[in-house]
């Protein structure tokens, strides 16, 4: 727009209507009031303009890396829903010297928006931790509660809270729970178990449990249960747990989260979007994976 045609500027930019629909749909499924705003950064973190060539396609990922941004461009997505926030703190520059900023530049160049829900997904009544508790329970009945209630939850999503606690009607074999976790979290070959001194995993029974995806030990440390399940925790937290007579299982951070995005969040979001845009599509990134791989050094010989 030429200056001589009259006043012009940023106020004339038309934000993408499809991006707004995605943000509104995510807020309907996982209200931002559920997020822990004391430290988390959720919501629409990168916007984009209305473009006639944009496709109503959303790419879902656990972590937004440079490879995932490239994948979104390749798959023709106009919006990325990244579970983990892409931006946590303020930026004083945007250059290619930093991997996050280089990714942001690629997204801006491609006209791709980013919405991040994080702890809003964790705390929702039908959210990530409820799903993870369901995996632990399997076919066994368990009375449920939240580890830490969410005081800001709207009535439409109450009761809500961080972490989930369960009590079985009768004891359940720990090996059965471990096999179910491994299968449902993507076919894991290994899980890390911290057990009380003298305890044998093969003969341990569980009457109660608490789960919190990601770095969830601080959410669970006050739970009086037999079993703690989380994505990752520190050495000293594991020591504390076993000295309390508890078994602690960690499956690596994003392994505790990623399967939920595929099995629950992706189809729920697509169903909601298609009520307004029948051709809307929600896909997964092919490059989203946990950064750690457990190696058997004997296989390197």
TrEMBL record:
Which parts form a coiled-coil structure per UniProt? none
UniProt xrefs under InterPro entries: DUF34/NIF3, DUF34/NIF3_sf
Q: Name one GO molecular function term.
A: metal ion binding
Task: Return the SUPFAM superfamilies for the record.
Answer: NIF3 (NGG1p interacting factor 3)-like
Going by the UniProt record, its keywords in alphabetical order are:
Metal-binding
GO CC annotations, alphabetized = mitochondrion
The UniProt record gives the binding positions of a divalent metal cation as 84, 122, 253, 257
Q: State the similarity comment.
A: Belongs to the GTP cyclohydrolase I type 2/NIF3 family.
PANTHER family reported in the protein's UniProt record: NGG1 INTERACTING FACTOR 3, NIF3-LIKE PROTEIN 1
What is the protein's name according to its record? Protein NIF3-like protein
């Amino acid at each position: 727009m030429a200056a001589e045609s009259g006043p012009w500027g940023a106020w004339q930019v038309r934000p993408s209507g499809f991006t707004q629909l995605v943000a509104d749909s995510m807020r309907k499924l996982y209200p931002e009031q559920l997020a822990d705003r004391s430290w988390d950064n959720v919501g629409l973190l990168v916007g984009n303009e209305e473009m006639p060539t944009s496709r109503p396609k959303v790419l879902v990922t656990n972590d937004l890396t440079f490879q995932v941004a490239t994948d979104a461009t390749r798959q023709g997505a106009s919006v990325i829903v990244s579970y983990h926030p892409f931006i946590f703190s303020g930026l004083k520059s945007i250059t290619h010297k930093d991997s996050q900023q280089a990714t942001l530049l690629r997204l801006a160049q491609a006209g791709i928006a980013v919405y991040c829900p994080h702890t809003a997904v964790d705390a929702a009544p039908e959210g990530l931790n409820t799903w993870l508790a369901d995996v632990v329970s399997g076919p066994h009945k368990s009375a449920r509660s939240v580890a830490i209630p969410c005081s800001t939850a709207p009535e439409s999503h109450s009761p809500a809270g961080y972490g989930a606690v369960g009590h079985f009607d009768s004891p359940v074999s720990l090996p059965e729970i471990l096999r179910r976790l491994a299968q449902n979290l993507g076919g894991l070959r290994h899980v890390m178990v911290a057990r009380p001194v003298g305890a044998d995993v093969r003969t341990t029974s569980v009457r109660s449990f608490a789960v919190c995806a990601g770095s969830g030990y601080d959410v669970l440390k006050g739970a009086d249960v037999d079993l703690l399940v989380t994505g990752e925790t520190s050495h000293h937290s594991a020591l504390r747990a076993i000295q309390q007579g508890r078994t602690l299982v960690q499956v690596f951070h994003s392994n505790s989260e990623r399967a939920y995005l595929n099995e629950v969040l992706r189809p729920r979001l697509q169903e909601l979007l298609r009520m307004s845009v029948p051709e809307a599509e929600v896909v997964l990134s092919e490059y989203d994976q946990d950064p750690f791989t457990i190696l058997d050094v004997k296989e390197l010989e």
